[in-house]
Amino acid sequence: METQQKLPEIFRPLLWSLKWDALDVSKDRDDIIVNTVNEGTLEHWRWLIKTYGKKTISDVLTRRLESEFHPESLNLARVIFSLPPLRNAR
Q1: Are 33 and 57 in contact (CB under 8 A)?
Q2: Are 10 and 44 in contact (CB under 8 A)?
Q3: Which region, left, alpha or beta, applies to residue 2 given φ > 0 means left and ψ of -120 to 50 means alpha?
Q4: Contact, 28 vs 18, CB < 8 A?
Q5: Could you tell me if 24 and 40 are in contact, meaning their C-beta atoms sit under 8 angstroms apart?
Q6: N or C: lower Cβ tally within 10 Å for the chain?
Q7: What are phi and psi of 30, to 5 degrees?
Q8: pTM for this one?
Q9: Residues 35-86: tens digit of each pLDDT
Q10: DSSP string, 20-86
């Protein structure tokens, strides 16, 4: 039986729209990354990088639409994760 990895409690306010007890670090990776980039602190971002790695985070963010991010958060993510321009429409 596979044990799901739990998120640190500091992520609860960032993921308020998701069912906290059912969240899994692997299965819910994309939602965790997007919400953390938008709303997280430096401490959250450090956990993301340690847990997923910059390449994985970059891959997840690159598949998303630019409109899913706060402009200031996206600008920081572009610098830290070397993101190319994101799509504006599907």
Answers
A1: yes
A2: yes
A3: beta
A4: yes
A5: no
A6: N
A7: -60, -45
A8: 0.88
A9: 999 999 999 999 999 999 999 999 999 999 999 999 999 999 999 999 999 9
A10: GGG--TTTTHHHHHHHHHHH--HHHHHHHHHHH-HHHHHHHHHTSBGGGS-HHHHHHHHHHHTPPPP
Residue 69: partners with Cβ closer than 8 Å, 6 or more residues away = 34, 37, 38, 77, 86
Cα–Cα dist 49/71, whole Å: 20
Tokens of 18: 């998701």
- What tokens does 50 get? 């340690």
Residue pair 89/65 in contact (Cβ under 8 Å)? The answer is yes
